[in-house]
Amino acid sequence: MTARRSDPERRDRLIDVTLDLIAEGGVAGTSHRRIATRADVPLGSMTYHFAGMDELLHEAFTRFAESIVARFEERLGAATTPDEARVAIVDLIHDDLTGDDHLRDQVLSYELYTLAARESRFRSITREWMRRSRVELERHFDPDTARRVDALIEGLSIHRVLDPEPPSRAFTEEAVARITADVPRP
Predict the structure, then answer these.
(1) Among candidates 42, 61, 82, which has minimal Cα distance to 179?
(2) CA–CA separation, 130 and 124 (whole Å)
(3) pLDDT class for 6, splitting at 50, 70, 90?
(4) pLDDT tens digits for 104-131?
(5) Is the pLDDT of residue 1 over 90?
(6) Rounded CA gap, 134 and 129, in Å?
(7) Which parts of this chain does the entry mark as a DNA-binding region (predicted)?
(8) In b/e form, how buried is each residue of 95-118, taking b as 16+ CB within 10 angstroms?
(9) Domain residue extents for the chain
(10) Which of 63, 122, 158, 176 has a CB 3.0–4.6 Å from the CB of 116, allowing a cystine?
(11) Cα angle 143, 184, 173; round to 5
């Protein structure tokens, strides 16, 4: 009898490879076969770890959203004043969420948004992401302002990636300052 190959990280590797493939070719271009090949695992092991592609996609996008929320929590958690929170928001938009190093994350975000728009099961991921982002923002601003800032972050992130003349840091600083000017602290 042949000894079974132990691969305790296989499940995590499958999720990571799934995110890589989605970033490269979209959800539509991602298949069990492509994932197994890229992860260097037998195709049959896919069903051992995941009931189907829907479950794998859900877990992959949940992991991805968690990584983005962790950036919010790190940046905004370090801020102790509204002014520091404003700087953290600008840094999130310009340093942590966009730019050449983060293009993959933007593509994954758009793929998740598209999937969530079509399938309610995936909306739970985006809702939790938005909720947790606003929790961090509400540490520094009232709930209405936090919601406005959250929408600004999403919108400016999209413009920073897709606009041929993306908003400058100065533009972002002014937008954040305008939205958060003279608002009561929670």
Answers:
(1) 82
(2) 10
(3) low
(4) 999 999 999 999 999 999 999 999 999 9
(5) no
(6) 9
(7) 31-50
(8) ebbbeeebeebbbbbebbeebbee
(9) 54-180
(10) 122
(11) 80
pLDDT grade for 182, boundaries at 50, 70 and 90: confident
The Cβ-side half-sphere exposure at 137, using a 13 Å CA radius, reads 27
Contacts of 72-81 with C-beta under 8 Å, sequence gap 24+, read: 72/132, 72/133, 72/136, 73/132, 73/136, 76/136, 76/137, 76/139, 76/140, 77/136, 77/139, 79/139, 79/140, 81/140
Residue at token pair 């799934």: 18
Structure tokens at 77: 């958690």
pTM: 0.88
Question: Do residues 110 and 49 touch, judged by C-beta distance below 8 A?
Answer: no
Instruction: Return d(Cα 142, Cα 149) in angstroms, integer.
Output: 11
pLDDT at residue 27 tops 60: yes
Alpha-carbon span 82 to 137, nearest angstrom: 10
What is the enclosing helix (H) or strand (E) of 66?
A: helix 53-78
Chain position carrying tokens 């933007």: 106
Say which residue the tokens 């961090």 belong to. Answer: 136
